[in-house]
Amino acid sequence: MSDRRTAREALERLIVDVPEWPQPGVVFKDITPVLADHDAFTAVVQALAAPGRDASGAVVVDKVVGMEARGFILAAPVALTLGVGFVPVRKAGKLPRETHSVTYSLEYGEATLELHRDAVEPGERVLLVDDVLATGGTVAATRQLVEASGAECVGVSVLMELGFLDPRSTTADLPVSTLLTL
Predict the structure, then answer these.
(1) Which residues cross the membrane (predicted)?
(2) Reported pTM
(3) Which positions are annotated as active-site residues?
């Protein structure tokens, strides 16, 4: 069985819906049971790493960027799997050195993300990794940060896509790989 299929089945079996959290009207998708299951987590990491490889299996990215906070949990092992560096994108005020910054809309509010100015180099190819693709705002904002550094986003890899929110209208021409669409 493929890692992608195994990952999708694990997500369907292990993700827990938490209604009305973090605020009324939101159904939070708790991925911690997936992370606690070694086989499921391994399959998820392998499947998320796939867009960082070409058809022959060669790595085609220089860095993996993970978005705060659950994206860190996923992106770091994806970077290790691909043999490349991991770069965190953080909420405002969390990074200690000079940053690029962008403010964007969330499905239930507004946020500012930051990336160290020297985290990615001009010309590097970057894979974005996160847990949920909702409105696409976080991906679009992270792409802006990466491109402000002169690097290129080659794709985004996510556990879940909330298709009913039409996130791909925000991600434009960026290839999106999703393990589970809700």
Answers:
(1) 71-89
(2) 0.94
(3) 70, 107
